């Protein structure tokens, strides 16, 4: 009643289908993401001295972040990868498939494919805690954090482990389009098992991602930039990238999480292993 949602319109995600607070918040966020009426004025950036209602998507994000940090033991591992080969492959694929699929393959498409491969090999990182049991899930629903004017949305692609790169890229492009248009559904926003978030376009090198509950890991992607590096005892310029992996220490220890991050780094540095 506080947010104006009729309980009969909700589907419960709690025990035996009970409706819980998260269901209400998710419905509130879905409503907030809906396209505004054509007659609505175009929103403007906040100005000094203005107030912004702490409701809708902003409130949902706040509640989920507090829940995430309060109910898990989060630790972040950072590693630098040589993305020179990845840059070359991305440019090659972008040119090769643009005419066929109507857009250029993006780095996030490759990162998602790499994450799915690594998760399939390290199911302990594709897990959640249910009724005092660690459940390693048999499917990978990979999510991508999307920056929207009203806040952050994380649509996920169901059963990404069964998709090849082009199929996954098309699914991600569709999800991003729905997020931008405000047409994401509750199914798009729930059920994720692993999240990728990138701040590279904003010139961020490394950061500490916050888990997207009930997921046990999230991968942060920094910017790709040329740096001097030592290759075969010679200093040369390489395209370097910083990875930030946050994981729930209750479900995994540092070494297994590090091996997972190491595998992601290996696939970035040798992306043709994906083929």
Please sum up the structure shown.
The chain is α+β, with helices and mostly antiparallel strands. The chain has helices at residues 21-33, 56-70, 84-101, 107-121, 165-181, 186-189, 254-269, and strands spanning 74-82, 127-130, 133-136, 142-144, 146-148, 151-153, 156-157, 194-198, 217-231, 234-248.
Describe, in plain words, how this protein is organized in 3D.
- This protein has a 6-stranded mixed beta sheet, with helices on one face.
- 36% of the residues lie in helices and 23% in strands.
- Mean pLDDT is 89; it is low at 34-43.
- By secondary structure, it is α+β, with helices and mostly antiparallel strands.
- It has 7 helices and 10 strands.
- It has helices at residues 21-33, 56-70, 84-101, 107-121, 165-181, 186-189, 254-269; strands spanning 74-82, 127-130, 133-136, 142-144, 146-148, 151-153, 156-157, 194-198, 217-231, 234-248.
């Amino acid at each position: 009643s506080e947010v104006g949602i009729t309980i009969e319109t909700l589907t419960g995600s709690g025990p035996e289908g009970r409706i819980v607070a998260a269901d209400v918040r998710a419905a509130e966020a879905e409503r907030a993401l809906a396209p505004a009426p054509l007659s609505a004025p175009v929103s403007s950036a906040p100005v000094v001295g203005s107030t912004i209602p702490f409701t809708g998507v902003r409130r949902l994000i706040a509640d989920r972040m507090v829940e995430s940090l309060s109910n898990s033991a989060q630790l972040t591992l950072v590693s630098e990868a040589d993305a020179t080969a990845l840059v070359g492959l991305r440019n090659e694929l972008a040119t090769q498939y643009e005419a066929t699929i109507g857009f250029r393959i993006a780095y996030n498409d490759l990162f998602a494919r790499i994450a799915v491969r690594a998760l399939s090999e390290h199911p302990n990182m594709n897990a959640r805690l249910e009724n005092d049991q660690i459940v390693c899930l048999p499917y990978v629903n990979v999510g991508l954090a999307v920056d929207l004017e009203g806040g952050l949305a994380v649509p996920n692609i169901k059963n990404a482990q069964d998709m090849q790169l082009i199929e996954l890229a098309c699914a991600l492009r569709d999800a991003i389009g729905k997020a931008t248009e405000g047409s994401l559904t509750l199914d798009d926003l729930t059920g994720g098992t692993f999240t990728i978030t990138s701040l590279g376009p904003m010139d961020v090198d490394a950061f500490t991602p916050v888990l997207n509950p009930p997921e046990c890991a999230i991968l942060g992607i920094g910017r790709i930039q040329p740096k001097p590096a030592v290759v075969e005892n010679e200093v040369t310029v390489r395209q370097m990238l910083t990875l930030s992996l946050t994981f729930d220490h209750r479900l995994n220890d540092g070494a297994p999480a590090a091996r997972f991050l190491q595998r992601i780094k290996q696939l970035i540095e040798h992306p043709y292993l994906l083929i």
